[in-house]
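Re: the 295-residue chain
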Amino acid sequence: MRSWSTARWYSLVPRIVSEGKLEAANGRLGAAQLVGNELAGPPIGGLLFGLSMWLPFVVDAASFATSGALLQGIKGDFTPRSEGSVTTSVWQDAKVGLRWLAGHDVLRATAAGLGVINIASGSWAILVLFSLEILDLTGVGFGLLVSATAVGGVAGSFLGERVARTIGRGRGMLWPLAVGGLATAGIGLSSDALVAGALMLVEGLALGIFNVIGRSLRQVLTPDRLMGRVTSGFRMLSYGMGAVGAVVGGLLADAFGLRVPFVAGGLAVVIVSVSMGLWINERTIAEAQARVEAV
């Protein structure tokens, strides 16, 4: 249900706001999601559970109902513009979206890079062990460490619009990605909790900017009729390769120690971000956008 609803609201945003405001809209949505999922949600859930075991589930259900009621207030026709009225299956739709994605230079490079990045991010699977054994943190300290990433992500979500406007969507997406990779490698080399926390803040900031601009770019370059299918393809790569990355991170940690997944993964992200620049730059983005507008 969550994957379906996320794909739908990603597709809905470009129908509500103009292209020039996509980063602002996606940034606010991303920030709200991070605050709810990473910062406010867990402590509120714990408080409700402490009052009664069933209370968090009731409040969660009520939040879905409230969200649905608020969405009903959005005016407009949001039916995707399609080519004909042929009935297709979910699998056929998925194949169409993936086939289109494979034929698009900019988005194919973005999707492939995202897949490799999620494999390289397998260090997150061992973060709790790294925190306890290398940084010598308690459970509370680990919670604060993770919160630093979320705080950085919220800030990055709001900065995405300004970065894209200042240096363009191509550089605005890839430069922060490289910075985030360097921060990840730095975490692996650190033994100080404060330094690691600061680097996780930087990493969250960089990823927040990358996510906002990358999502906006995908919305600009994808035809309306394929928006949901292409979004689902990206999410499949994100979750699927993330699972592979967790296994890779665990194997590297077991074979070479807890620092190696962070250092190797961070450097891999830097290399990938530089390589993606061959296909993702202001020229290729402008050409791809012109093709969409010509349809």
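The chain has one domain: 2-294.
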